[in-house]
Amino acid sequence: MKTLLIARENAPVSRYGLPIPYGWYRIMLSDELGVGVVQTVRLFDREWVLFRDAKGQVGLFEPHCPHLGAHLGVGGKVDGELLRCPFHNWGFDHQGFCRHIPYARSMPPSLSREPVLKGLPVVEANRMIWAWFHPTGAAPMWQVPDVPETANPGWHTRHHPVFEIRTIAQEIAENSVDAAHLKYVHGQAAALDVGSTYTGHLRTTALKGPMSIEDSRGKRIDCEFSVDFEQSGPGIQVVRMSRHVSLVMLITITPVESELTHLRFSFLHPDYSEDPVRQALVEDFIQEQVGERGQYVGVVADLPIWNNKIYHRKPLLCDGDGKIVEFRRWFSQFYQ
Ligand code: FES
Ligand SMILES: [Fe+2]
């Protein structure tokens, strides 16, 4: 009788057993954080306090005051360029320096030397707030990619509600190189196995040719598309479609807990209100990405898989599985 051996390396400790990878991650839309607002946010498996000062500058810090430990997100207030602690009113700027202690006869000299609030680098780009997370606090190694369409007044932007998924950033990104699942999960007629180019933190793919989209009546429409895909680290993917219609998809993946991730889609396209054919194509394409239409199902079909699967470090693969090993080799840099 044969014995079925289960490889030790395939026995998961947690469902994934991987740390949070480093990179830039979308925190929220810029419009969602008004001047003078202080918020407690959960990101990267811990709490942070986020605020926007009177000059519009944004800070993101560990939430407990370095003085006697009050929670800055519970009663903390913006006072000009400072975040005031609710306990003794010390004031901290958006870089984490303590700039004012209202009752100190002289400020401790050490306070001018370095920030006392530990925080993350934050930038605003593409009308969004982004934070750089690195487990050892290393400085940013690249920039958030510019998506100029977000600043184009002739373009519309639609932000789809967040998908909260019990998974990790790598699993969501790996989905796009998993050629075989496209047929069995999403109902695509043929697996599309497109090679990627890997350069440093970037993964790029270009695709040209005919594509078919299902319209609201379930009819397939054939059209010409050119698709440029760029993934910038674990958290940002920009998909730019052109030719028949222009459409940009900004896909962001943000770790909230070690195994809970927020996936967001923002769609940008020119104003097609005078062009019902192109408008309908854009609607159909968006539905196909995030919705459920006929037998072709978008990302919602991935959710039950992601919410319940485990991660095999050494999966059993076949030759039709796509470039999973190559992708994992590239992605592993973000765990260094
Ligand atoms: S605990 Fe924050 S000022 Fe004292
Ligand atoms: Fe998928």
TrEMBL record:
<comment type="pathway">
    <text>Steroid hormone biosynthesis; dafachronic acid biosynthesis.</text>
</comment>
<dbReference type="GO" id="GO:0046872">
    <property type="term" value="F:metal ion binding"/>
</dbReference>
<dbReference type="GO" id="GO:0051537">
    <property type="term" value="F:2 iron, 2 sulfur cluster binding"/>
</dbReference>
<comment type="similarity">
    <text>Belongs to the cholesterol 7-desaturase family.</text>
</comment>
<protein>
    <recommendedName>
        <fullName>cholesterol 7-desaturase</fullName>
        <ecNumber>1.14.19.21</ecNumber>
    </recommendedName>
</protein>
<dbReference type="InterPro" id="IPR050584">
    <property type="entry name" value="Cholesterol_7-desaturase"/>
</dbReference>
<dbReference type="InterPro" id="IPR036922">
    <property type="entry name" value="Rieske_2Fe-2S_sf"/>
</dbReference>
<keyword id="KW-0479">Metal-binding</keyword>
<keyword id="KW-0472">Membrane</keyword>
<keyword id="KW-0411">Iron-sulfur</keyword>
<comment type="pathway">
    <text>Hormone biosynthesis.</text>
</comment>
<keyword id="KW-0812">Transmembrane</keyword>
<dbReference type="Pfam" id="PF00355">
    <property type="entry name" value="Rieske"/>
</dbReference>
<dbReference type="Pfam" id="PF19298">
    <property type="entry name" value="KshA_C"/>
</dbReference>
<feature type="domain" description="Rieske">
    <location>
        <begin position="24"/>
        <end position="131"/>
    </location>
</feature>
<dbReference type="GO" id="GO:0170056">
    <property type="term" value="F:cholesterol 7-desaturase [NAD(P)H] activity"/>
</dbReference>
<keyword id="KW-0560">Oxidoreductase</keyword>
<dbReference type="InterPro" id="IPR017941">
    <property type="entry name" value="Rieske_2Fe-2S"/>
</dbReference>
<keyword id="KW-0001">2Fe-2S</keyword>
<keyword id="KW-1133">Transmembrane helix</keyword>
<dbReference type="GO" id="GO:0008203">
    <property type="term" value="P:cholesterol metabolic process"/>
</dbReference>
<keyword id="KW-0408">Iron</keyword>
<dbReference type="GO" id="GO:0016020">
    <property type="term" value="C:membrane"/>
</dbReference>
<dbReference type="InterPro" id="IPR045605">
    <property type="entry name" value="KshA-like_C"/>
</dbReference>
<dbReference type="GO" id="GO:0005737">
    <property type="term" value="C:cytoplasm"/>
</dbReference>
